[in-house]
Amino acid sequence: MNTMLLPLFFLLLGDLSLGFAKIHRYRFIVVEREYTRLCSSKTILTVNGMFPGPCIYVSMGDTIVVNVMNRANHNITIHWHGVEQNRDPWSDGPEYITQCAIRPGKRFQQRIVLSNEIGTLWWHAHSEWSRATVHGLLIVYPKLDNTNGAGYPFPIPNQQIPLVIGEWWKSDIQAVLDESRRTGGEPNVSDAFTINGQPGILYPCSARDVYKLNVQYGKTYLIRMVNAVMNNIMFFKIANHSIVVVGSDGAYLKPFETDYITISPGQTIDFLLKTNQPPNRYYMAARVYSSGPNVSFDHTTTTAILEYAGSYPPPAVLTIPTLPIFNDTVASTNFTGRMRSLANKDYPINVPLSITRKFIFTLSINRFLASINNITFRQPKISILEAYYNRIKGIYDANFPSEPPLQFDYTADSVPVDLWRASNGTKVVVLEYNSTVEIVLQGTNTVGGIDHPMHLHGQSFYVVGWGFGNFDAATDPRKYNLVDPPYRNSITVPIRGWTTIRFRATNPGVWLMHCHLERHIAWGMETVFITKDGKRPNEKMVPPPKDYPSCR
After folding, report:
1. 210 to 6, 191, 218: CA distances (angstroms)
2. Helix (H, G, I), strand (E, B) or coil at 533
3. DSSP codes, 286-339
């Protein structure tokens, strides 16, 4: 059985109306289960025994109440990736940022209030490396009150399909992380990638471990995809088919046609698949895009099957689709660079034009450490949110630098070793409510350059510009797209390049920004934004819930 398509009632405990919005109640039981892949079995951490975890289906503006019960032997937190969590950071989930872990035998009721998010989001563990197996999709349907009657800015699809690109280690994932910490080196790469939990026929003992998508000729399918891989950007392609991309990161896009996808860890992409080819069986495939010249990665390819209904002679040989080569930066950036917001009367945008806070953040690797503006983030003893709310001193410093401490040729072929060093610190950025923020994310070539998929909690942003080389403050802003920039919660800064984002800080609370390559966040490529309360009651952070997992 394909667990990704289990009926919603398997998880749904209640569904209460509140005006036009609804309150959906779910139970997430964190348990260990044995799974067999690649000729061997192991115990993994799961939600409700499922890998990937359960999909949640809601509508725009709804509220989700999730009772998380930890019946495993590991600490856990759950992050609702792409949900802005307006005024309520208590349920955001990153360990030691907004909460301490839900310990074995404990529980926490998380309240997730949706606002303008629409399309495909996801949830995942945000403690240690548990998200390797603890993750699932969060699908937000539109309200039935605009455009074509179904709330979609494109033709209504015949069916909607969740698609999770993940990966699999034969070893225990915690052991992989522990060994990396002990040796001070890169973590061991995975043994396989997966599509909806299945590796596909190219791996040993996997002839039957293949996800199959059954389709009918002449239909349109809305595929809702997330890259849940831990440390790799992925290319994806369906043999003999082109697709139309219509959304990413919980926001719609101007549709564009393509025959491949580049998707970063943490990113979601919605695309339309028209089944207009001769009925047959076709491969879907995904493999790594890796720009770092000295970075180890899993060189394997995961496959799934697109199978048309009907009677036809089985193909003698199924052909794997030709994906871009593993280091094709042009293919990666060309795909991402095509994204544009709809920016029309039904889906307006509001790009900040007058900026009150400007930042330049350098993103650097520092010999198996990582940093932003030469600060390697040090995890505090208690959560920053708890310290901020209760005014506990000595937990963090509110002096994160607004620009790098050293000016140099960030993307030079060779960066001097004395510029590789970083200092440890728990430093945060404090923003006034309603301030308008611009951040230039500048990649560097210290140790070695690589793409960095950066994710911001509690706040989506407009990607107004990007380029290769060092950002030029005199000339590059002239090329900003302020008309229809994509609205994202994650964006990949290209190797030896830069990306500029803008947002308005109207969500009071404590919000993490980090690279979504897990080895980089483990090495310290993260920082925290604290957005202060506004003056009105609806501009202030709500108090903590009674069962909040305190660190004290």
Report:
1. 18, 16, 24
2. coil
3. EEEE---TT-------EEEEEEESS--PPPSSPPPP-PPPTT-HHHHHHHHHT-
Residue 20 has a pLDDT of: 67
Name the amino acid, one letter, at 55. Answer: C
**Residues 143, 60 contacting (CB under 8 angstroms):** yes
pLDDT in tens, 272-286: 999 999 999 999 999
The identity of residue 187, as a single letter, is P
Residue 359 DSSP one-character state: E
Amino acid at 174: Q
Segment 217-243 shows an average pLDDT of 98
Neighbouring-strand partners of residue 438: 358, 502
User: What are the tens digits of pLDDT across the range 285-325?
Assistant: 999 999 988 888 999 999 999 999 999 988 888 889 999 99
The CA-to-CA distance between both ends of the chain, in Å, stands at 44
Backbone angles phi, psi at 9, to 5 degrees: -65, -15
In whole angstroms, give the CA distance from residue 111 to residue 103. Answer: 19
Tokens of 348: 């307006």
Angstrom distance (rounded) from CA 159 to CA 166: 23
pTM of the prediction? Answer: 0.94
* Three-state SS sequence of 81-147: ECCCCCCCHHHCCCECCCECCECCCCEEEEEEECCCCCEEEEEEECCCCHHHCCEEEEEEECCCCCC
Please provide residue 148's backbone torsions phi and psi, each rounded to the nearest 5 degrees: -90, 15
